[in-house]
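Contributing: when you submit paired examples, paste them exactly as shown. First protein:
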Amino acid sequence: MGCGERRRCKCCHKLFRPDARNRARQHYCSAPACRAASKAASQARWLSKPENQDYFRGPENVARVQAWRSRHPGYWRKERPAGPALQDVLTAQHIDSTKETGEVARPPLQDVLSAQPAVLIGLIAHLTGTPLQDDIVRTAGRLLRLGQDILATSAAGAAPAPPMPDGGAGGDRLRDLRQDPRLP
């Protein structure tokens, strides 16, 4: 396939193989911009012929259009009837067993977000590695103070940070929490 002679497109000047059925007349490649240029050139050629210059003008064409409009009043203004729906109506399908969908079906995100306190407690217990209530309360209080310090610092316009309890070594507070949840 395609063993014909290649030629240059008149628009983009790239080489292309013309279609075998239209080889003698095809001077543009199939790129969208080149096809648009081909159509514009074709229309300009047609309009440049003397017999076509007044094709859409003159009293006989005005009369033809006026007669058509009188036979079709309100053609452009009337609403088109609505066609059939493009989407089929779906019927609900009964799920036979929760065993099949047990692993796939999860609660919606809204249910998870409404359980924020439980999520927060679970996260703290996971990070600290202990499910004991006293450790979770102590860690939650420490995280609350840490958050308030961060918010106060950003509200004060990036004021200097308070001195670190590690002597300014800049240790990771979350890592410290994970290692010893009983820290103040």
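Second protein:
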Amino acid sequence: MLRTMTNCLIAVPALALLAAPGLSKDSYPPVEVLLQTETSVIGQPIVYPKGPAQITVAIVTMQSGQKTGWHLHEAPLTAHMLEGELTVDYGADGTRVYREGDTLVEALGSRHQGTNTGAGIARIFVVFAGAVGTPNTVAE
């Protein structure tokens, strides 16, 4: 019995030492930051709507030549181009072209229109950081 207890007293700390590297702060997988910003693509400060937070995550799929129509966003929107090409007209703030791999914070409260100007579909992963009762997108 005493020998079994002694073996346990030696084995448990040894196992803990072997497991410790798995708990190390250096063991977290690498993180590739796609974007970190305080402003939208047209230079506006990011402002969150008032009210209880509500996150909406979606994938927008647009056919070649398809337009979004003129609209604006009342909630901050981060977008990542999964596939294709999207040209966005921001009126007086210019036009920008986004392609696969691009990440952006869309214009907030400013009207704009997107067009799939690529040969194939455009797929955009979007995350709205909105609030309950606040529309993410308002069509004109």
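If you have annotations for the second protein, write them as plain sentences, like these:
The helical segments are 2-23.
The first strand starts at residue 53 and ends at 62.
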